[in-house]
Amino acid sequence: MGFGGRFELVRLRTGAWAVRDAVVGEVMHPGAGPGVEAWALYVEELQLGRLWSRVESGQQAEAVVWDVGLGAGANALAVLRSASTRRVRLRMWSFDVALEGLAFARRHGDRLGYVEGMEAVLDRFLSGGGFVGRVGEAEVEWRFVEGDFSRWLVEDAAEVSAPDAVAYDPFSPARNPALWTVEVFRRLYRRLDPGRACVLATYSRSSRVRVALLVAGFYVGRGCAVGVKEETTVASNCPDRLERPLDGAWLARLRRSTAAEPAWLSGDPPGALRPSTWDLLMRHPQFAGCGMGSEPAPDPRGGD
Question: Which GO molecular-function terms appear in the entry (predicted)?
Answer without folding.
Answer: methyltransferase activity; oxidoreductase activity, acting on the CH-NH group of donors
